[in-house]
Amino acid sequence: MTAMARTFFVYMMTNAGNTVLYIGVTGDLPTRVWQHRNGHGGFTAHYRLKKLVWWEMYGDPRTAIGREKQLKAGSRARKVALVSGMNPEWRDLYGEL
């Protein structure tokens, strides 16, 4: 029997002014972003992080978690460059999921 393939996402959320960045990992990006947008989660609710501005997809949870840790350890400038490379206007990508 073959194990069903799953998809994992590393993503960044920000607030209206793009001043705070949150990095997370999930197996269900639309649901997780909906939760952030609706005030679920302490950090994201406190800072009103409702805009999905960047994400990457992975087929393995360990790889996704490793990438999340790598990004969290990096500088803000590297995170901003990553978002700007995929999403130069810093649009909310939630509607495109």
Helix content: 25-40%
Number of domains: 1
Strand content: 15-25%
SSE pattern, N- to C-terminal: EEHHEHH
The number of E-state strands comes to 3
What class, by secondary structure content? alpha+beta
Task: Supply Rg.
Answer: 13 Å
Major sheet, described briefly? 3 strands, antiparallel
Low-confidence stretches: none
Residue-averaged pLDDT, rounded? 94
| Contiguous helical run count | 4
Spatial order of strands in the largest sheet: 2-1-3
From the structure provided, what is the oligomeric state, counting identical versus distinct chains?
single chain
Q: What is the terminal-to-terminal distance? A: 31 Å
The dominant shape is globular
Question: How does this structure look, described?
Answer:
The chain has helices at 29-37, 42-46, 61-73, 76-86; strands spanning 8-14, 21-26, 51-58. Helix content is 39%, strand content 22%. The termini are far apart. A three-stranded antiparallel sheet has the order 2-1-3, with helices on both faces. With 97 residues, the chain is of the alpha+beta class.
Short description:
It is built from 4 helices and 3 strands; from the N terminus they run ββααβαα. The protein has 97 residues and is an alpha+beta fold.
Summary keywords:
97 residues
Summarize the helices and strands and which ones pair or pack:
Elements: E1 8-14, E2 21-26, H1 29-37, H2 42-46, E3 51-58, H3 61-73, H4 76-86
Antiparallel strand pairs: 1-2, 1-3
